[in-house]
Design a protein that fits this description.
Layout (H helix, E strand, L loop, with lengths): L1 E4 L17 E4 L5 H7 L5 E4 L6 H4 L7 E4 L9 H7 L2 E3 L6 H16 L2 H10 L21 E5 L3 H12 L3 E4 L15 H7 L2 E4 L13 H6 L5 E4 L8 H10 L4 E4 L21 E3 L8 H20 L8
Helix pairs in contact: 4-6
């Protein structure tokens, strides 16, 4: 049995070869023009973000199992896999604590303008006539309202942590939904009432660029936007304009629409105020990485034993 890992370097620790695997092709990265050759005669492929679409999959008759080393699986053509009988498994909930703590960290950093005050300490404090240096207003986290879009493992974990520090929490109903489910609030109300909006929903046709200029203009001027899910949930050009024009107060992004982004990406402009961008690492705490590797091994063992685990297709 041949197993190919296409982008192993996205994991800070390598996966271990299962005892029952005959051919273990562990690739740190794989370019588009190398994928077909790498997967020749493979029965199992392990991928994090390398896309597997119909035009590629139809030329791989021996492929039986795709193990995604993430919770999101938008990189996989799930409809074609369903038609072909290719099993797809993911790793649900492995990073809930890691991402949730990252979100809370972003909230503190943005509400307290840590980025600006770090700069002020290094460039202006020495010239101050007083012991303190006031710049942007520091806002409390307690009693602030957090709007959460997405009520999966991560969204629920964020809610628990936020409530524990005194925040008020609302879960948004799907954008444009005709009915409001119990425990949810109309999307537009959440957008308009929240001091912080955090995104934890999957990327699909209905959520792509759900945060656009119309939505940003519905937010409070002092509101903040956090995205640790998928970059394409936000219209990035609109967000740049909103930050430059002061339509919202700030944002923290752990994901961008193109990863890695070009150096010229407008959201990497250091002149943008109260913007924090990190390189897609909110999931990567010690617990997140440990959980991920354990569940990938569990999924592989499940396929080998004929008892599929964490199946999404």
């Amino acid at each position: 049995m041949k197993i190919v890992t296409l982008d192993g370097d996205t994991l800070p620790q390598p996966l271990k070869k299962p005892d029952w695997c005959d051919v273990w092709d562990y690739r740190g990265s794989t370019s588009k023009n190398e994928i077909a050759a790498a997967l020749h005669n493979a029965e199992i492929v392990i991928t994090n973000k390398v896309e597997l679409r119909e035009d590629l999959l139809r030329d791989l008759p021996g492929l039986r199992f795709i193990c995604v080393t993430a919770t999101g699986f938008d990189c996989i053509d799930t409809e074609y896999c369903r038609e072909r009988g290719i099993v797809v498994s993911n790793v649900p909930g492995y990073s809930a604590n890691s991402v949730a703590e990252g979100v809370i960290g972003f909230i503190f950093a943005l509400r307290r303008h840590l980025k600006d005050y770090l700069h002020a300490a290094g460039h202006e404090w020495s010239d101050s006539t007083h012991f303190c240096l006031h710049r942007a207003p520091i806002r409390d986290i307690r009693d602030a309202t957090l709007g959460i879009i997405g009520r999966g493992d991560i969204g629920c974990h964020v809610a628990r942590l936020a409530k524990s520090i005194g925040m008020k929490v609302m879960f948004a109903e799907r954008k444009g939904a005709p009915e409001i489910r119990e425990g949810y609030v109309r999307f537009e109300e959440v957008i308009a009432q929240s001091d912080v909006i955090t995104l934890h929903c999957p990327l699909n046709d209905s959520t792509r660029e759900m945060i656009d200029m119309a939505t940003l203009r519905q937010m409070k001027p002092e509101a903040l936007l956090i995205n640790t899910a998928r970059g394409a949930l936000i219209n990035e050009a609109d967000l740049v304009s909103a930050l430059r024009e002061g339509i919202i107060s700030g944002a923290a992004l752990d994901v961008l629409g193109t990863e890695p982004p070009p150096a010229s990406h407008p959201l990497l402009d250091p002149a943008l105020k109260n913007l924090i961008v990190t390189p897609h690492i909110a999931w990567a705490s010690h617990s997140g990485v440990t959980n991920l590797i354990k569940v990938v091994e569990y999924n592989l063992a499940g396929y080998y034993s004929g008892q599929i685990k964490n199946r999404v297709v």
